[in-house]
Amino acid sequence: MLKKIAVFASGNGTNFVALQQAIQTRPIPAEIALLVCDQAEAPVIKKAQADGIPVLVVNFRDYATKADAEAIMLSALQREHIEAILLAGYMRIIGQTLLTAYPHKIINIHPALLPQFPGRRGIEDAFEAGVTETGVTIHFIDAGIDTGQIIGQRTVPVMADDTLDSLAARIHQTEHQFYPDVLQSLINKGAI
Ligand code: GAR
């Protein structure tokens, strides 16, 4: 049985593509059965459509509250029988509606070694702090910003001649390997 997962994303979707390619080429018993996106113009939408993956775009401005928006998401997730959610560059805090519906089944990838450098600027903040090592964290989410039980971390060196772009590229490369590895291991362990 393939584990039905949803990916939530707000932007480019390179992690979405890495997950989808890994699922297609490796023995990962999963299927991305839904992409949820909160930005109508995000490039990730076309990437999902190109693979025939159903897309739900939720424009938060159309809803009075986060709970209202998440209720729409939840009906789509339930309709598609989604068992776990992978956040991949989804730039919003998940609210109580989804946390309650998917306890310990929502996972996030963050481009820094949490608890250092949480938030939207994990790569920039680490670069500007002048650290010699940063990395990638994958964790279950809770109601906080990039908090929640850490599943795993991979370190990424910061080179003396790095620019923000070269460091970001190295971090993204690590993310694209690491997220599929973690997905595979969580499914194999029966954790999601
Ligand atoms: C990724 O680097 C991800 O770790 C980060 O957004 C990027 C999305 O890239 N997430 C966060 O910063 C969450 N706090 P992508 O759209 O190309 O996958």
- Strand content range: 15-25%
> Cofactors and ligands present?
glycinamide ribonucleotide
Q: Strand sequence of the main sheet, in spatial order?
A: 3-2-1-4-5-6-7
Task: Give the biggest beta sheet.
Answer: 7 strands, mixed
Q: How many beta strands in the DSSP annotation?
A: 7
Poorly predicted residue ranges? none
Q: Which CATH class of the domain at 3-109 and 138-147 and 176-188 applies here? A: Alpha Beta
In percent, how helical is the residue content? 25-40%
Structural class: alpha/beta
Whole-number average pLDDT?
97
Q: What fold name goes in the CATH topology slot of the domain at 3-109 and 138-147 and 176-188?
A: Rossmann fold
Distance between the termini: 13 Å
Protein described:
This protein has 192 residues and is of the alpha/beta class. It has a domain at 3-109 and 138-147 and 176-188: Rossmann fold. 38% of the residues lie in helices and 22% in strands. The chain is built from six helices and seven strands; from the N terminus they run E-H-E-H-E-H-E-H-E-H-E-E-H. It has a seven-stranded mixed beta sheet, sandwiched between helices. Helix 1 (14-25) packs across helix 6. The longest helix is centred in the C-terminal third of the chain and has 25 residues, at 164-188. The two termini are 13 Å apart. Glycinamide ribonucleotide binds at residues 9, 11-15, 88-89, 109-111, 120, 122, 146, 172, 175. Belongs to the GART family. Catalyzes the transfer of a formyl group from 10-formyltetrahydrofolate to 5-phospho-ribosyl-glycinamide (GAR), producing 5-phospho-ribosyl-N-formylglycinamide (FGAR) and tetrahydrofolate. The record marks 146 as: Raises pKa of active site His. Its EC number is 2.1.2.2.
